[in-house]
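Need residues for this backbone.
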């Protein structure tokens, strides 16, 4: 048997060194492989993260584009959307176990108008309202002015007609009667003209003289061509029966109307 105290041989030392070198190389190889695996894992994780970011960016862009063009896309795809929904409602061929999906009503997002558009619309509406109000005020003013003018014309004509009607001088009875007829129109003129001779005879025989003045006159009702005027008048009467400037007070309702370019009396009534 060999002695344990003998020194190691050179062949054994070389074998041990070779084994140690092999183990070291294997350890390095395993470490390199582990590092490669870790790098690959990091690369895969980075690739997954980049892909997710890209997908998220594409999704956001698609959503933004869809929101911006919803009106146009909705109008163009109404027919295709209805067809797609009809297909979605019916089960696929050969697949009777799939439940029917409910048909959801398609709602389109309405874009809110810009504040500049709203401001322009409000300005346009305000301008139209102001123009309409201005036109109405102008028309109303013209109507009021015309009514005032007509009222003044009818009132002045009625005052003069009453003075002519109630002022008689037996010395000029024919002329006074002719003036009354000339300032009358319609049935009143015809009736008075038919009784003119009798009126002249009575005034002449009674030696009647009357002088009338108008105290007040106002339009009761009026159109553009006619009016009813209330007149308060006072007169003095002198006649052969002994009256000497006897005062009288009268209230009359006078209908006047336009006859050509003049305003004439068509009716007169004494109001109590």
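Answer:
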């Amino acid at each position: 048997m060999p002695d344990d105290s003998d020194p190691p041989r050179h062949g054994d030392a070389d074998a041990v060194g070779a084994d140690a070198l092999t183990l070291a190389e294997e350890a390095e190889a395993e470490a390199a492989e582990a590092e490669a695996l870790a790098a690959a894992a990091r690369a895969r994780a980075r690739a997954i993260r980049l892909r997710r970011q890209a997908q998220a960016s594409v999704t956001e862009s698609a959503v933004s584009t869809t929101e911006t063009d919803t009106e146009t896309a909705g109008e163009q795809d109404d027919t295709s959307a209805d067809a797609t929904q009809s297909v979605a409602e019916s089960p696929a061929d050969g697949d009777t176990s799939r439940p029917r999906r409910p048909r959801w009503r398609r709602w389109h997002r309405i874009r809110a108008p810009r504040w500049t558009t709203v401001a322009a619309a409000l300005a346009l509406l305000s301008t139209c309202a102001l123009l309409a109000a201005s036109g109405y005020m102008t028309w109303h003013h013209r109507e009021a002015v015309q009514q005032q003018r007509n009222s003044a014309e009818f009132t002045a004509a009625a005052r003069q007609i009453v003075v002519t009607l109630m002022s008689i001088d037996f010395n000029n009875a024919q002329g006074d009667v002719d003036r009354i007829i000339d300032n009358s129109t319609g049935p009143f003129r015809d009736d008075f003209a038919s009784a003119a001779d009798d009126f002249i005879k009575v005034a002449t025989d009674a030696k009647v003289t009357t002088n009338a003045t108008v105290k007040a006159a106002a339009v009761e009702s009026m159109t553009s061509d006619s009016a009813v005027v209330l007149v308060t008048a006072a007169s003095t009467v002198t006649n052969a029966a002994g009256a000497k400037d006897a005062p009288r007070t009268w209230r009359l309702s006078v209908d006047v109307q336009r006859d050509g370019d003049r305003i004439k009396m068509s009716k007169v009534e004494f109001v109590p």
